[in-house]
Amino acid sequence: MSAPFASIDALAADLAARRVSARDLAERALANARRHAHLNAFIGVDPERALAAAERAGNARGPLAGIPFAHKDIFCTKGQRTTCASHVLENFIAPYDAHVAERLDAAGAVSIGKTNMDEFAMGSSNENSAFGAVKNPWDEARVPGGSSGGSAAAVAAGIVPFATGTDTGGSIRQPAAFCGVTGLKPTYGRVSRYGMIAYASSLDCGGVLARSAADCAHVFAAIAGHDPRDATSAARAVDDVAASLDAPLAGLRIGVAREYFGAGVDDGVAACVREALAELEKLGATLVDVSLPNAHHAIAAYYVIAPAEASSNLARYDGVRYGHRAAQPKSLDDLYSRSRAESFGAEVKRRILVGTYVLSAGYYDAYYLRAQKVRRLIAGDFAQAFGDVDLIAGPTAPTTAFRLGEKSNDAIAMYAADVNTVAVNLAGLPAISTPAGFVGGLPVGLQLVAPAFAEARLLNVSHRLQQVTDWHARRPEGYA
Amino acid sequence: MSRAWEAVIGLEIHAQLSTASKLFSGAPTAYGAEPNTQASAVDVALPGTLPVPNRAAIAKAIRFGLAIDGQIASTSVFARKNYFYPDLPKGYQISQYELPIVGRGTLAVRVDDGRTIAVAIERAHLEEDAGKSVHDAFHAETGIDLNRAGVPLLEIVSAPVMHSAAEAVAYMRTVHTLVRWLGICDGNMQEGSFRCDCNVSVRPAGTTTLGTRTEIKNVNSFRFVEKAIEYEIERQIRAIENGETIVQETRLYDPTRHQTRTMRTKESADDYRYFPDPDLPPLVVTSADIERERASMPELPGARRARYVAALALPEADADQLCADKATADYFEAVLSALPGEAKLAANWVLGELAAALNEAQTPIEAARVDAAALATLLARLREGVISGKIAKEVFAAMWNGEGGADAIIEARGLRQISDTGALAAVIDEVLREFPQQRDACRGGQEKLFPFFVGQVMKRTRGQANPQQLNALLREKIGLETA
């Protein structure tokens, strides 16, 4: 009974016609998860909870009612373990639901469990998980990308129709590209961060990974909107993304950022992306050469700002109130240092150290403050470019999925792979990674970036592309 | 203080804003609850929780800014002050650092010696309080109570412009009066709602460079502030005169020994790694926000005090006392509105009989058992000559004991003053008949006997004789010249 899923619209039609029940779908997703357990895409699967949710979903209406999915294990879910893939939260059970979890619950979607990720969302390969690496269904010797690697692998493997994710520097888009799925990172503030465990608060953004832009649109519509519990949540009304999904692309101006095709970008990847852009041109879009002159500063700025915020956000994991606590502490300092040393992974420690350093007296101006200035320049680049074009395009990642272990001892090489995604977070803009072909059997992602709150345009363009191409519909061998 | 030295003092006052809920969470702020019963998920810093600013706290900060004629920032920024401590759940305190909500302002302060000094206030910023470590609840272990964690504070930072403990205390009292007057802080020092850090340095008199300062942390009474500063000034002068160097450090005040001692030196001080809190967008205060508060601002204590002296001709000491808190001043005005033109009489009674009764009953004036209207009625009877001052005190005591209003008590106890000349003359005649020798002696020049006759008449009239009338009539009957 395990089998991948059709589109959300098709599933909703089956549910409406009572050809299947929400329980059938939940059971199928649970069976899929069991069958593909070797991917290690999940930190926790909760059949009992899923089936209970499926029963409740019978009463809900709307496109997501009864549709199974999985949450990245960074979203707090009431009464359920939420680990953020860290030993420090190994036994943490949240007493509340994240805003995103509440909204999906209200829409009748059925969570089957929590997906694996890089610890505290710090990583681009999902190798930094306290619960082990995740395998890429397209090549199990390769990484699925990160930090939402479990969500991307689960969707690519057909375990669930969609999964939630978070994106701080590319953590939805890069794994979406590596796993051949569609990943939407909304505008900063469009999706409430309430109950989403913080990595870098000014960059963190909740979003979705799914098989298609149309599926992403349904989930985006459910999770977007103002939430007074998050002071950075945007008050403006959410566009009707479903209504504009099929809009024609005639007259659309797509800026092709030359910096996104710079050194380090694999030729095969670049060729795929250009081919996808050519398809958009055929649909009526005009390609325009644009420049983002400060793009090459983005990695440096990001790896100052994100660790700075992380060093402060993660101070609460001190062993005093909850989370891992060192045994037999000899003093307060001993309690702090051992509780943290024993329970954080190497990458988390590295970023806490970097972040502490760049905020320290005497270094603040040279690092943190300068990085904030760069951030404004980068936002200015986008603003300038959007004066002329409607979207900016490029490869999501410079390469296809790399091998497990290939970069795990080289942090700089790992960071460099985020070159095309982090600037978008620094500018707070929405972006999507949509499938754009294959190189050597591995998926390639096209990244489209839009002005703030123009998610509808991203979904529209991605959807139109997916109507004339089949890259998004292909399945890895053994997962059909 | 040796005349060769000048002390320089600045205060950082922490006033707890009297809001129902915390600065960034919905948890209640009531004092004295069971430990950790007023700590929400935000206060405990559970993962995924986020701070949401409390608009009521912001409104109170704006009121303070208006009261000191301070610059109210249209945009201010919440920053994180990072340090590890068990009573600090997030590992950082949300405060304001580079851009506070209230910028430079000033406050006129009356010092005990009669001078008025203008104290510059550099800034006032919003911040959350930390929790509390409890050292005596568990054997060999420390408990943490997070009820206080997240409670809103306004930190009011003066410029280093005061030069004696007396000036510092006068400033602190003025701020204390002001925050209570504005209704933004209950001022309760025992409960920690109003506390103070004192920055103290000394320099050779006549010089302008600041000396190295020490900071005395968390002093929570006016007397302790005075003692701590006095001690610290003397200590620093003694040290310098002995050829020692003052070390920049944080010191603690020991109230049992009236001394300060080192808590930590600057070398070991924390680097707080302040940076703007990314969970909180810049705090925007619009001119509409400011005007809304301005519209409901009360007349301020300084203005009211000046009005009492200028328009009501009250002595400065009376005006000071009446304006020590708003409830007292309001009570006084309520009495006065029912008794126009009798400011001095009203002030005497509010600061005298009423204050004594409140003090004895340990009751705040808001809960006085004689309200302003009732007191005004009593004072009206006194002015009308229905009762004497002495009887008025008796009637007040009865009113305080709940026996009713002034008129009812005067009637019930038959305290109406005898102003009927005929009746009074009869009593006087009776007394003079009874003591003929004394009468003659008095008439012959021994005027010291006069009060004896007054006493006798008062005794027979049970104090109800109108004193002025009695005086005049008695002199006439004895044969003394009318005074």
TrEMBL record, chain A:
Gene3D superfamilies registered for this protein in UniProt: Amidase signature (AS) domain
Naturally occurring in which organism (per UniProt): Tahibacter soli
Annotated catalytic residues: 72, 147, 171
Gene (name only): gatA
Stored Pfam families: Amidase (PF01425)
Listed NCBIfam families: gatA
Any one Gene Ontology cellular component term annotated for this protein: glutamyl-tRNA(Gln) amidotransferase complex
Family membership noted in the UniProt record: Belongs to the amidase family. GatA subfamily.
InterPro entries: Amidase, Amidase_CS, Amidase_dom, AS_sf, GatA
GO MF term set: ATP binding; glutaminyl-tRNA synthase (glutamine-hydrolyzing) activity
Residue ranges annotated for the Amidase domain, each copy included: 27-459
Catalytic activity: L-glutamyl-tRNA(Gln) + L-glutamine + ATP + H2O = L-glutaminyl-tRNA(Gln) + L-glutamate + ADP + phosphate + H(+)
Entry EC no(s): 6.3.5.7
UniProt name for this protein: Glutamyl-tRNA(Gln) amidotransferase subunit A
Gene Ontology biological-process entries: translation
UniProtKB/TrEMBL annotation, chain B:
Residue ranges of domain Asn/Gln amidotransferase in the record: 330-478
GO molecular function, one term: glutaminyl-tRNA synthase (glutamine-hydrolyzing) activity
Source species, domain of life: Bacteria
InterPro entries for the chain: Asn/Gln-tRNA_amidoTrfase_suB/E, Asn/Gln-tRNA_Trfase_suB/E_cat, Asn/Gln_amidotransferase, Asn/Gln_tRNA_amidoTrase-B-like, GatB, GatB_C_1, GatB_Yqey_C_2, Gln-tRNA_amidoTrfase_suB_CS
SMART domains xrefs: GatB_Yqey
Reactions it catalyzes: L-glutamyl-tRNA(Gln) + L-glutamine + ATP + H2O = L-glutaminyl-tRNA(Gln) + L-glutamate + ADP + phosphate + H(+); L-aspartyl-tRNA(Asn) + L-glutamine + ATP + H2O = L-asparaginyl-tRNA(Asn) + L-glutamate + ADP + phosphate + 2 H(+)
PROSITE patterns in UniProt: GATB (PS01234)
Entry keywords, A to Z: ATP-binding, Ligase, Nucleotide-binding, Protein biosynthesis
EC number: 6.3.5.-
Biological process, per Gene Ontology: glutaminyl-tRNAGln biosynthesis via transamidation; translation
Record has Transcription as a keyword: no
Similarity section: Belongs to the GatB/GatE family. GatB subfamily.
Stored HAMAP family: GatB (MF_00121)
NCBIfam families named in the record: gatB (TIGR00133), PRK05477.1-2 (NF004012), PRK05477.1-4 (NF004014), PRK05477.1-5 (NF004015)
Function: Allows the formation of correctly charged Asn-tRNA(Asn) or Gln-tRNA(Gln) through the transamidation of misacylated Asp-tRNA(Asn) or Glu-tRNA(Gln) in organisms which lack either or both of asparaginyl-tRNA or glutaminyl-tRNA synthetases. The reaction takes place in the presence of glutamine and ATP through an activated phospho-Asp-tRNA(Asn) or phospho-Glu-tRNA(Gln).
Subunit structure, as described in the record: Heterotrimer of A, B and C subunits.
Name assigned to this protein: Aspartyl/glutamyl-tRNA(Asn/Gln) amidotransferase subunit B
Gene that produces this protein: gatB
